[in-house]
Every structure is written in structure tokens, then in C-alpha cells.
Amino acid sequence: MADLSQQDWEEQLENDPNAVILDVRTEEELEDGVIPNSINLDIYKGQEFVEELQKLDKSKNYYVYCRSGNRSGQACSIMNSLGIENAYNLQGGFMNWEGETE
């Protein structure tokens, strides 16, 4: 797992053809907006969240965010424990995101 600054996360994401953006916030939080092309898996769903992670392609690079960066950091650790090596946490989360949103 790597914690990336907002700038590094966005730059690395733009140059990564193997990237998948993962939003681990709740449905209510999605109303604040989302980073385009992200997949939502709510980390608060516990075992269901882990089961969804296990279905992911382990060869992809995952760019993970939540509201502030705490839950996405936890998600990256869980992903690493499931054999997903490339998980990048967005420091500061969505509340500090200055890039494009939907």
C-alpha cells in the first residue's frame, strides 16, 4: 500500500492504463459527488465488502479513496492481505479532491 498526495495520486492515475478507481464511501456520501469512472464498494458492509474485493482482478492497479483518507487506507491494507499488491490510498480523501467530479 502506498499513501499518495492528491497531486501524485492524480498524476499516477492519469498515466496508468491498468488503473481502477475504487470509492469505499457509503451511498449517502456519494451524493457529495464522485471521481469519474470510480467503482463504489462500501467498506462499512464488512464481509460483503471483502467478498467484493476478492472478485477484483489482482493484476490491476487500484486507486482508492474515501471522504478523508482513513477508510481508504484500511481498504488498501485489506486489499494487500487478499493478494492485491497495487493499492494506492488518496491522502486527504474526497474532501480535499480538486480534480474532476461527477
From TrEMBL:
Which residue range or ranges hold the Rhodanese domain?
15-102
Task: Write down the SMART domains for this protein, in alphabetical order.
Answer: RHOD (SM00450)
Q: Which Pfam families match?
A: Rhodanese (PF00581)
PROSITE patterns per UniProt? RHODANESE_3
The entry's protein name is Rhodanese-related sulfurtransferase
Q: Which PANTHER family match?
A: FAD-DEPENDENT OXIDOREDUCTASE, PYRIDINE NUCLEOTIDE-DISULPHIDE OXIDOREDUCTASE
Q: Where are the transmembrane segments?
A: none
